[in-house]
Design goal:
It contains one helix and 43 strands. It is mainly β.
């Protein structure tokens, strides 16, 4: 059986792809986090392993200065000419009625690279994907964004020819549909089955009204007829479903002719409440009617569904503790707004440790020093041992439960005014900081174990200087680490979006530029089975 979500935690906007008879890949959005575009591999659609991200250097991706939940939106992954083709949008701005949306394409002979220098495409919209037709021609799809105040921002799904040899767009774009009455047509993927072209797209926005629709045409350019049965998938009509916000589908066919849809979903802590784990990826079987329409049973997401007739292919279980014994970060780690390079971190300067050189403040968007991993379960823990020698209150290092620059909790080592090290706790919710009444003196020159325990809706911190763990007397609201808490509107204008999910990580600040660093001896993440 397939147990959903198959990719847990912050793993939205899945595009699924089969290459050959055995290998399946899913690419997901990463927004302001490196490496850009998370990649996952499976041979049976049940067991998945993280491969890390495709865009792991500034040559491939520049996220410096992007807003919270900007950066990589809804990539497209396809395969042609013996190459993987990755198209993606880097959202530089999205607020107050404007969006700057450069789209690019890169290719690689292997899913693990090397990826070619990205080539610019256009900036008319986002959620790009490539469709490779039987005649050898390729087509780029995207939603069309319209900035004009008197127009609908979501102006329809656009199609334009793409030449795979020259990496250039040909001809003029054409709008092939404006979607259904649900509105907000985006996330398009095009498929061909028999004599029909099938257009699958998201609708209804990214929240609880989210869904996926399908339309078809015998002509590539339409007109596209919507499925008369309504949405292909949605949770909007039933708040009791365990999997909410279902939509944004992409399809894959097995060699035996079985079809599956990969889609967004979310698991709120309370009914239609906050989703701390962010938007996740699930799979649903797809059948075809006699009339030739794809259908998901009941058009609703199910937690447990039948697996395809493929040989089971489990992967080794990843270790819960990273001892930082390898020269590069493992695939579960992400870094904020700058790639994991020797300019600010090292796994070799002190063997068996991750050394992180201090970066910008928690609101800095160019050179923050945060290494984090996704929260994948409502109950989990995160622990590390940090060695740090702060000299002023401008030097901080510790662990964070993080959503974005405006929403986080932080347990950190810093210096008091007289130069003595101490533990402090700071929280931030929608830009409002709270310094908690905690100050634990630490012996100079020693390391300390820091621990975070998440048990929704509460986050607890603890520390250990060698005499056993000491819980801190704080019950922190973990639901501020959610999409819903992150969304901000002012005077009717969108200012901040919440598209990611909760992260647990290692954070270091050097606010006076003194060159301080912290050494982390290990990191243990344990999720409690659900």
């Amino acid at each position: 059986m397939i147990h959903n979500p198959v990719l847990r935690g912050f793993e939205p906007d899945p595009v699924i792809l089969r290459v050959g008879d055995e290998d399946y890949y899913i690419a997901t959005s990463t927004f302001e986090w490196y490496p850009g575009v998370r990649l996952h591999h499976s041979r049976d659609l049940v067991n998945w392993r993280a491969l890390g991200g495709a865009l792991d250097s500034r040559r491939l991706l520049d996220l410096s200065g992007v807003p919270d939940s900007g950066g990589i939106w809804a990539p497209g992954l396809s395969y042609a000419d013996g190459l993987f083709h990755l198209v993606f949008t880097v959202v530089d701005t999205y607020a107050e009625g404007w969006k700057d949306l450069p789209n690019q394409v890169t290719t690689a002979p292997s899913i693990e690279g090397p990826w070619s220098d990205p080539v610019p495409l256009h900036g008319r919209g986002f959620d790009v994907s490539l469709f490779h037709d039987r005649d050898g021609r390729s087509w780029l799809l995207n939603m069309r964004f319209d900035w004009r105040p008197e127009h609908d921002m979501f102006a329809g799904i656009e199609l334009q020819e793409y030449d795979r040899t020259s990496h250039k767009l040909l001809g003029q774009p054409r709008t092939i549909t404006v979607g259904t009455d649900a509105g907000v047509a985006e996330g398009p993927h095009l498929y061909r089955r028999g004599d029909w072209y099938y257009l699958v797209h998201a609708e209804g926005g990214t929240g609880y009204e989210h869904g996926a629709a399908v339309a078809r045409s015998r002509d590539l350019f339409g007109p596209y007829e919507p499925d008369p049965a309504g949405p292909l998938l949605t949770s909007r009509h039933d708040p009791t479903l365990e999997l909410q916000k279902a939509g944004h589908c992409s399809l894959v066919e097995t060699p035996a002719g079985e079809w599956y849809a990969a889609h967004i979903t979310a698991r709120p802590y309370t009914e239609r409440g906050r989703c701390v784990l962010g938007r996740e990826t699930a799979l649903q079987p797809v059948t075809w009617t006699e009339e030739g329409w794809p259908r998901i049973a009941g058009a609703v997401p199910t937690v447990t569904v039948p697996a395809p007739d493929l040989r089971p292919a489990p992967f080794p279980t990843p270790p819960t503790t990273d001892h930082f014994a390898r020269p590069i970060l493992g695939p579960d780690w992400s870094t904020l707004r700058r790639p994991a390079d020797q300019n600010w971190l090292s796994l070799t300067e002190r063997p068996g440790h991750l050394r992180i050189h201090g970066g910008q403040s928690p609101v800095g968007r160019r050179t923050p020093s945060l290494v984090a991993r996704r929260v994948t379960a409502p109950r989990c823990s995160f622990e590390t041992r940090v060695t740090f020698d702060p000299r002023t209150p401008d030097h901080l290092a510790g662990i964070t439960a993080y959503y974005n620059t405006r929403n986080w909790h932080y347990l950190y080592v810093t210096s008091t005014d007289d130069g003595s090290p101490a533990l402090h706790v700071l929280s931030c919710e929608q830009r409002t900081r709270t310094a908690h009444p905690v100050q634990v003196p630490l012996p100079p020159g020693t390391s300390v174990v820091l621990r975070a325990e998440l048990d929704l809706p509460v986050l607890h911190f603890a520390y250990d200087t060698g005499d056993g763990p000491v819980p801190l007397p704080l019950e922190l609201d973990a639901t501020v680490l959610s999409d819903e808490a992150a969304d901000e509107f002012h005077d009717g204008q969108l200012r901040v979006l919440g598209f990611t999910g909760a992260m647990l990580g290692l954070w270091v600040q050097d606010l006076d530029g003194a060159g301080v660093h912290a050494d982390f001896g290990y990191a243990t993440y344990q999720a409690v089975a659900e």
